[in-house]
Amino acid sequence: MAQSVRGVIARGKGLPVELTTIVVPDPGPGDAVVRIQACGVCHTDYHYREGGISDDYPFLLGHEAAGVVESVGEGVTDVAPGDFVVLNWRAVCGDCRACRRGRPQYCFDTHNASRKMTLEDGTELSPALGIGAFADKTLVAAGQCTKVDPAASPAAVGLLGCGVMAGLGAAVNTGNVGRGDTVAVIGCGGVGCAAVAGARLAGAAKIIAVDIDPAKLETAKGIGATHTVNSRESDPVEAIRELTGGFGADVVIEAVGRPETYEQAFYARDLAGTVVLVGVPTPEMKLELPLLDVFGRGGSLKSSWYGDCLPSRDFPMLTDLYLQGRLDLDAFVTETIALDGVEAAFHRMEKGEVLRSVVEL
Ligand SMILES: NC(=O)c1ccc[n+]([C@@H]2O[C@H](COP(=O)([O-])OP(=O)(O)OC[C@H]3O[C@@H](n4cnc5c(N)ncnc54)[C@H](O)[C@@H]3O)[C@@H](O)[C@H]2O)c1
Ligand SMILES: [Zn+2]
Ligand SMILES: [Zn+2]
Fold first, then answer.
1. Domain segments of the chain: what residues?
2. pLDDT tens-digit profile of 247-286?
3. Could you identify the atom of ligand 1 that is nearest to the CA of residue 303?
């Protein structure tokens, strides 16, 4: 039986989001209905609202979530009703050219629910990143549900579903940070701070946090940064070189998504070092660099989508580290809010007042 529940939707560019009634169908083959317990407010939800990702309004927002599986469709064996899960946007197909080469973290054909959630008048909803979790319940592909230890707080581990995984994985998976490395992170919002946490977990010797906001630098310090640089007050490239014996960092993670910060990352890394771009640029942005420097400095310039994560491998492991006190996910939860607080949370996010606002249900 289809169910009517509350959900937060975006109807058009520039319009405030609305809390309304949505209809969640029974799970089709391979699907699962999940009762949401917590969902973080991510920049990407705001990009959806603004039409920056596609024009397929109305969107059902929210995608950084944890909850409990309520029912599953035909053929689902990996999860069952009652399972505590973190939702992911990388339910790998197992069959595309990336999966077949043993690189499922690059899957080009990830799965979403086989049926559509709708408004009461039957209008089909587009769930953000195929999830749509600012809702009492949502319908996803069962592969989007990753079981984790139910002892964990939903508000904390739900963040593994997007921003924290993106930043932490940018350091650990994409950047391959290892013991003794020097790491710089440019932009210390939720994603950059997660990169700091990842670098710390990986055993980096020095972790230099760069931001223009002193409050963000304080937070980064609490999460594991060994040094901070306010790039409004001093040249970050010079500062990072000075802190690394004049050479630059082994790995520099760009978590802002702008050409000028990318250029800083490019020049703040040591010869043969790695730049990881995790910040998302906008379509009009362009980058100009002397090609001779790209060649002459060697190393690698990488981009990181979703921290090159494999949810089935990474979510349970990171949840365990959280429960053991080795990964402070609670530090990322600035505030918990109700389902009708998403619009106000967008404004606080735009002002840089929060690492993460998390809706609790
Ligand atoms: N690649 C992925 O898979 C993925 C996933 C989630 C988010 N993201 C992207 O990561 C980026 C960061 O996300 P977030 O949630 O941390 O955002 P945020 O707004 O919380 O953080 C951005 C930080 O950058 C700082 N900043 C802004 N301009 C700066 C500058 N010129 N120099 C230094 N610091 C500067 C801000 O003060 C802020 O602390 C966004 O572009 C987001 O879209 C990427
Ligand atoms: Zn695939
Ligand atoms: Zn997100």
1. 3-161+328-360, 167-305
2. 999 999 999 999 999 999 999 999 999 999 999 998 899 9
3. 1
pLDDT of residue 5: 98
Residue type, 206: K
**Which are the contacts of 282, defined by CB distance < 8 A and separation ≥ 6?**
52, 257
Q: Pick out the chain residues at pLDDT < 50.
A: none
For residue 118, the cross-strand partners are 23, 124
Residue of 278, 308, 347, 349 to mutate, ligand 1, most atoms within 8 A of C-beta: 278
Q: How far is the CA of 140 from the centre of ligand 2 (A)?
A: 17
Q: Is 161 in the pocket of ligand 1 (CB under 6 A)?
A: no
Atom number in ligand 1 closest to CA 210: 33
Task: Supply the residue whose CA is at minimum distance from atom 6 of ligand 1.
Answer: 163
Angle subtended by helix axes 236-243 and 259-267, to nearest 10: 30
Res 240: pLDDT: 98
How far away, in angstroms, is 100 Cα from ligand 2 center?
Answer: 7
Report the pLDDT value the prediction gives residue 330, as an integer from 0 to 100: 97
Residue 52: predicted pLDDT = 86
Q: What per-residue confidence (pLDDT) applies to 118?
A: 98
Answer whether 280 contacts ligand 1 (Cβ < 6 A). yes
Name the strands in the sheet holding 118-119, side by side, starting at the edge strand that comes first in the sequence. 118-119, 18-24, 3-10, 59-60, 126-127
pLDDT in tens, 306-344: 999 999 999 999 999 999 999 999 999 999 999 999 999
| Residue having the nearest C-alpha atom to atom 33 of ligand 1 | 211
Q: Which ligand is nearest to the CA of 280?
A: 1
For domain 167-305, give the fold. Answer: Rossmann fold (3.40.50)
One CATH from 3.30.420.240, 3.30.70.20, 3.90.180.10, 3.40.50.720 for 3-161+328-360: 3.90.180.10
- State the alpha helices, DSSP H only, in the chain: 43-49, 97-100, 154-157, 163-169, 190-201, 214-223, 236-243, 259-267, 291-296, 311-323, 342-350
